[in-house]
Structures
1.
Amino acid sequence: MGKVYCNGEFVSGDQAMVPVTDHGFLYGDGVFEGIRSYKGRVFKLREHLKRLYQSAKSIHLDIGVSFEEMHEIVLETYRKNNMPDGYCRLVVSRGKGDLGLSPSNCLESSIFCIVDAISLFPENMYQQGLEVKTVSTRKNSVDSLNPRIKSLNYLNNILAKIEANQAGAMEAIMLNREGYITEGTADNIFIYSGRILKTPPLFAGVLEGITRNAILEIAVKLGMKVKEELFTLHDLYVADECFLTGTAAELISVVKADGRRIGNGVPGEVAKELLAHFRALTESDGSVIF
Ligand code: PMP
């Protein structure tokens, strides 16, 4: 790893350390973003930062630097690492404190920005599609830890990921308390059914994915019928198509869910069309690094 932004300075990756009393480390108390650049542009950086500041506000976390300063921190980290196509992890933790839960002794947030090569799903996954499994771990409910907050506490999703992997699937489908589909462990879900593109509404308990929003926008522009609507596993099993979206994966088709073949069992035409338009967008939309 190259240069990491660490509270106002750039240090080499192996010197980037977090104090043991940082509440991000002790309690998962903080927020983060996973961001990606394409050909020298940081895709939808302002949207990612908006979500970061909203997550922080929701958990009473004062980030301590302005939106525009943070925008520059991310771009400068890309520049320092000379990485036109890379993955960025921006982390804001509650900062150093004592061993108690209360953040009252955490006087200053800690900010880290890491840029590294992106690790992608293998290309054959895009051609063949993905198998998913529903897991018993339910999504955090919106009245406990709202999944719209991109917090450092990802244990809920990690447990779901382990469960899916142990059952032989790459990704999990997570339900909410009421049994409606929410999303994966690090991606949003869409189904295409009866010529309508559907994704769960935010109140179901999902992250407002930047990729999700971009896909919704593209679909509307293409004249597709789009609905943010609750749906069940049955709706997924009988859908014509299903796909997941996220910064790293972009858009990847689901061809099998809980042993049921979805649609024709191969990535669908709607998914392919949306992915092509999404990839075109990544080349023109974003904050210019160099
Ligand atoms: N849901 C969860 C739980 C996630 O962690 C992510 C990844 N940030 C997503 C959805 C997809 O969001 P985005 O498109 O902004 O990467």
2.
Amino acid sequence: MLDNKEFTSVITGVFAKNSLSFLLSREKVELFYRLTEFMLEQNQLFNLTAITDPRKIIFLHYADCATLAARLPKGAKIVDIGCGAGFPTLPIGILRPDITVLGIDSTAKKVNYVNQAAQLLGLTNVRAEVARAEEFAQTSARESFDIATARAVSELRVLAELALPLVRVGGSFIAMKGKNAEFELSGAKRALAMLGGKFKKTEPIALCDGTETVEHPLIYIEKSTKTPTAYPRAYAQISKKPL
Ligand code: SAM
């Protein structure tokens, strides 16, 4: 682990290089420091992240999630589908105290970790729940969120069926995608229409730490009409026969 001074210098440097400094404060840097310590400690007990170099954690996890946090509307109520070890759930919670974020994941260990981290950091705007997205959407949580997000969960056709049923009409689904974003999008247009979604835009994001650049486009989908009650289907069907 880096010492506090070096950590502060790296995170402020990376955020500055990517025009994200306006989101940071001394207190938030301290929260990221404590989160990194806790994550690396817990990572020795069970697998949370393959990235264990704090410099890379800052760049590939925190700054990456900050690009989304910077674009979320004020006061939004968000569900992060497949939050895993809390990405983007925890960085959003730290960087945007005005936003409430619920992370859902099917793996109880990861959800417990996210709740422990939120408690340790005193993040009252973050909560995580053990749930499968397709089942969660059949509860009162259906169409109750302003925004659904997901990072590194599944291909867009599948993800749209997991995410759009949770978003209220007028809200949006923002997918953090990789290099295949355009390809996935072209295959998902039909699914979006069937689920009450409407493609709004792809925003290319190039994140750089001075030596490396990673591309992580954001795909914005509006929830234009209610999702038919037939969706989401059971996961076996969603994955075997994506819309
Ligand atoms: N979003 C995190 C990140 O960017 O580091 C985790 C990504 S991890 C590759 C995918 C996560 O999605 C896993 O933790 C998995 O348990 C969860 N997941 C996959 N399908 C899901 C579903 N239908 N409902 C809830 N969680 C799901």
